[in-house]
Amino acid sequence: MISRRGFLKSLLGGTLAGFFMGGYSVAEAALRLHVQNWALQPAGWRRGQRLRIAMVADLHASSFGMDERRVARVVELANAQGADLIALMGDYRASHRFQTRKVPIDVVAPILAGLRAPLGVYAVTGNHDWWDDREAMARRAGPCHTQVVLEAAGIPVLANRAVKLGAAGAAFWLGGTESQACFQRENRRDIIGMSDVPGVVAQMSGDDPAILLAHEPDQFITVPDRVALTLSGHTHGGQIRFGPWAPVVPSRFGQRFDYGHFREGARDLVVSGGLGCSGLPIRFGVPPEITVVDLS
User: For labeling, which of 126, 135, 275, 288 is most exposed (least CB within 10 Å)?
Assistant: First the structure.
């Protein structure tokens, strides 16, 4: 039987560990910022064609951890990667309650307009961008407010749309889908998405390689071999992670597409760990990141 002194020591140790873990988790979310690199040779990509993509995913801008100054730092760091293309992966708004003030997309978009890349900066929207737009939710149709504001700032939003980029001999398609969870009813069970992977792929004529931006990685299972690479965010790598294990991943496939590089058949997927927080303003084991993908 454990003694009273032993019990108190254990209780004190557990309390101190809890304070340490909590403090570290908050600090990791608010202070750390690193670059995660992935080098890939997708089966459907043109051999010898080099392309560097910088992903800025899940900003969830808020007064804590991702205010205007930190968004500006993200822009500065993304520009420093020398990317040919910058992809904004959705969820620019924070929904957690631990905010002293909101940092709206109307403030964030002009900062993101400072991103620079030779082939351009392109965006998709995420589920939170839809859920925070009551008018779009009410009419069950887009464009959502985030798309309108980003495009007003000069950032094209690929809402179930594809564009061809690059010079002759090195051209490729870039497509983007809407979220799989645009609308939800009060019981949160009836979730309606507007993603149209087949419709986007149908726009990719010819045989030039293709890249798809899809906020939720669950969309990957519907992506055909026509698409060499899919880029996603949404999961935050679990946001709390113990080595390879994340207790909670917002995906119906669990950890199948939780974080990092995945290859299934002739298709490749990269899921960014993202930058901001959802639910709680903490991160553990998966620090905020700008994700850089090098294709060759």
Answer: 135
Burial class (CB in 10 A: 0-12, 13-18, 19+), 110: middle
Residue 150 lies in a domain: yes
Domain range for 72 is 32-295
Q: Taking Cα atoms as reference points, which of 271, 60, 232, 29 lies closest to residue 146? A: 60
CATH number for position 159: 3.60.21.10
Q: Is residue 5 part of a domain?
A: no
Give yes or no for a contact between 217 and 128, defined as CB atoms under 8 angstroms apart.
no
Cα–Cα distance measured from residue 80 to residue 73, given in angstroms and rounded to the nearest whole number:
11
Tokens of 113: 């307009």
User: Per the domain annotation, does 9 fall within a domain?
Assistant: no
Q: Do the beta carbons of residue 98 and residue 64 sit within 8 Å? A: yes
pLDDT classification of 189: cutoffs 50, 70, 90: low
The C-alpha atoms of residue 5 and residue 196 are separated, in whole angstroms, by 62
pLDDT greater than 50 at residue 160: yes
Measured CA to CA, the distance from residue 103 to residue 80 in angstroms comes to 24
| 3-class DSSP state of 51 | strand
At 101, is the secondary structure helix, strand, or coil? coil
Q: How many residues does the chain have?
A: 296
**12, pLDDT greater than 60:** no
136: in domain: yes
Per-residue confidence (pLDDT) for residue 9, from 0 to 100? 45
Number of domains making up the chain: 1
